[in-house]
Amino acid sequence: KQEVTQIPAALSVPEGENLVLNCSFTDSAIYNLQWFRQDPGKGLTSLLLIQSSQREQTSGRLNASLDKSSGRSTLYIAASQPGDSATYLCAVRRTGNQFYFGTGTSLTVIP
Amino acid sequence: ETGVTQTPRHLVMGMTNKKSLKCEQHLGHNAMYWYKQSAKKPLELMFVYSLEERVENNSVPSRFSPECPNSSHLFLHLHTLQPEDSALYLCASSQGAGEMTYEQYFGPGTRLTVT
């Protein structure tokens, strides 16, 4: 069974800092990996999707990388802002329609 | 709004009640999903519908019964629930299923409390 781990569970940084969130998965046979953010009590907002054949994706201040062989993905956030405060989740998709989520990293950006 | 809506947003029900959660997607997708999110636990995939056919059922108790009448609507019928079923229930949709599945888009969720 696929297990997805996100470290750290919580992170607090001052505004303007660059930061990296980590996601690791135990089975490298994945179709894609998706990063989401979730605000308290709300649904998930898709940030970036990386297909298994890709190494990275970028959107604005966000950059996600994927190393399938080592079972790792990172989400890099440049010049963090208070509005970036949220829980960040990664999810991997295996064969069929199985999706596996991590428990998330709770990010607080201090003004 | 993400293009995926869910109603109701909050629901309190007794263990003997019957209720339904509704999800509607306005994105023209052909796959829809139900997830359960409990505190301190990863999201759990419950059901997947592709082209209105159920393709995944992850050992979900029979007190949860999904229905997908068309590609835009998804329901989760609830009956005889237990307190441990209290959670945030999230609906999602995507284009494609099987090997070529693109981004999942989520609704805001229904916060369910079973008393």
Keywords:
heterodimer, A: 111 residues, mainly beta, 0% helix, globular, B: 115 residues, four-stranded antiparallel β-sheet
Describe the structure.
The complex is a heterodimer of chains A (about 110) and B (about 120). By secondary structure, chain A is an all-beta fold. Helices cover about 0% and strands about 60% of the residues of chain A. Chain A is globular, with a radius of gyration of 13 Å. Chain B is mainly β and about 120 residues long. Chain B contains no helices and 11 strands. In chain B, strands 2, 4, 5, 6, 9, 10 and 11 form a 7-stranded mixed sheet that branches. A 4-stranded antiparallel sheet of chain B has the order 1-3-8-7, with no helix packed on it. In chain B, β5 and β6 form a beta hairpin. The interface between A and B is medium-sized, with 24 and 30 residues.
Describe, in short, the structure shown.
The complex is a heterodimer of chains A (111) and B (115). Chain A has 111 residues and is an all-beta fold.
Shape of chain B: globular
SSE topology string of chain A: EEEEEEEEEEE
Using only C-alpha atoms, the radius of gyration of chain B works out to 13 Å
State the low-pLDDT regions of chain B, or none. Answer: none
Strand content of chain A: over 45%
| Quaternary | heterodimer
Q: Roughly how many Å apart are the termini of chain A?
A: 41 Å
Helicity range of chain B? under 10%
Pair with the biggest interface: A-B, 24 and 30 residues
Average pLDDT confidence of chain A is 93
Along the chain, the helix and strand elements of chain B come as EEEEEEEEEEE
Mean pLDDT over all positions of chain B: 90
Shape of chain A: globular
Number of strands of chain A: 11
The poorly predicted ranges of chain A are: none
C-alpha Rg of chain A, in Å? 13 Å
Gap between N and C termini of chain B: 30 Å
Helix share of residues of chain A? under 10%
The total count of strands of chain B amounts to 11
Largest sheet of chain B: 7 strands, mixed
Helix/strand/pairing category of chain A: mainly beta
